[in-house]
Design goal:
This protein is an all-alpha fold. Helices cover 72% and strands 0% of the residues.
């Protein structure tokens, strides 16, 4: 009987109930809320679901992301090895290749002025950088945090790793991906507040057809120009344009299909769960994390606002030919931000079709965020 009781007692001591802190329970609740948003509300579930589940796992079993140096047997936890692919910038670069293979750059080629809207939305990043400095972060940490304003998770991970901000990588990545998923909630109120009903109802002219030659030359020219000016952007911009060249060349359909489907989904699983696993209670429930979450929201809201404001300027300059709503798509949450612009415009006029027009600034925003990251690396790297 004594042996049975000792065995039962030993078993109970091994359960998570005897090893978790109050912070772990808080994070478990947060993970369940995010799972609710992903499954029930369907807010970017491909990203939010694996992130939330990784967060759930690490707060129940912290050793799942333990490094070999911290382990008694010299072996790291499963998600530790996944996370190394993030720190080595492998998964973010592969994500960019998948995005390139999935995305039609035609709207941006047909309307090059979209580059201006994509650039305007990057002001949120630079504004958040100065706010971060004001809150006490150093230059490198401020740069890594501010890139959240681009609503681009892979770039956030890439820049934080390159600038040596691994201690902040978890909160930065979780904040970036969470805001990407919450684009349909955060952006519409800002868009409505900064535009009039008449502006939201503006119908734009149909985009011109884009030739196959233009589609093939575009990724090659962008790679040469951007990477010559900012070589540090080559892993992100290069992979983005390579994926798009797979798509548009027409000679490697198997590679295009694999990059945009099976490979992309595998990378999302690895990246999402490992990023979520960085959100342990010990790492996440800190004052710096609260600052990062707030700064990320400020950066994202500011980027949305400056995009819309510049859209209003273009509307005036073109005598009402540009709907300012498409400026909000200048953040690089592809294609969610473009869909939100379409949705808000359709609320005023169901016959208004802004999606393809919004895809131009949306794609420009992806390039713009990568350029912003490259600029920070060139200065602080």
């Amino acid at each position: 009987m004594t042996k049975i009781l000792e065995t039962a007692g030993s078993f109970l001591q091994q359960t998570a109930f005897f090893n978790l802190t109050w912070g772990n329970y808080v994070m478990i609740v947060v993970a369940c809320v995010l799972l609710y948003f992903a499954i029930v509300k369907q807010y970017e579930p491909l990203l939010l679901l694996p992130i939330a589940f990784g967060m759930l796992l690490v707060n129940i079993y912290p050793d799942i992301i333990l490094s070999p140096s911290e382990s008694s047997d010299g072996k790291g936890g499963l998600l530790y090895y996944f996370f190394q692919l993030d720190e080595w910038s492998i998964l973010p670069s592969l994500i960019f290749m998948g995005v390139g293979a999935m995305t039609d750059f035609g709207p941006l080629i047909a309307n090059p002025k979209s580059f201006l809207l994509g650039a305007a939305a990057q002001f949120g990043i630079y504004g958040a950088y100065f706010f971060a400095i004001f809150l006490g972060f150093n230059d490198k940490a401020a740069a890594a945090i501010s890139i959240i304003g681009g609503a681009d998770g892979p770039t956030s991970i890439y820049l934080a790793s390159k600038l040596g901000q691994t201690s902040l990588l978890g909160p930065i990545a979780v904040a970036a991906y969470s805001y990407m998923a919450l684009v349909p909630i955060i952006q519409p109120p800002i868009m409505r507040a900064l535009t009039t009903k008449e502006e939201r109802s503006i119908k734009m002219e149909q985009l011109r057809p884009v030739s196959k030659r233009e589609r093939i030359l575009f990724p090659i020219i962008v790679t040469i120009v951007v990477c010559l000016i900012l070589p540090t952007t080559a892993p992100l911009v290069g992979m983005l344009m390579l994926g798009n060249l797979f798509r548009e060349s027409g000679v490697v359909k198997q590679l295009a299909e694999h990059a945009s489907n099976s490979l992309m989904y595998i990378v999302v699983i690895l990246l999402g769960t490992s990023v979520g696993a960085t959100a342990s209670a010990a790492n996440f429930l800190t004052v710096d994390t609260i600052k990062i979450v707030v700064l990320g929201l400020v950066a994202f809201a500011l980027g949305t606002a400056t995009g819309v404001i510049f859209g209003k300027i273009m509307c005036k300059a073109t005598h009402g030919k540009v709907n300012p709503l498409i400026g909000a798509a200048g953040v690089s949450a592809v294609p969610m931000a473009a869909r939100v612009a379409q949705k808000v415009g359709a609320e005023e006029d169901p016959t208004n079709f802004l999606l393809m027009h919004a895809m131009g600034p949306n794609v420009a925003g992806v390039i713009g965020t990568a350029v912003a990251a490259g600029t920070f690396m060139a200065i602080f790297g």
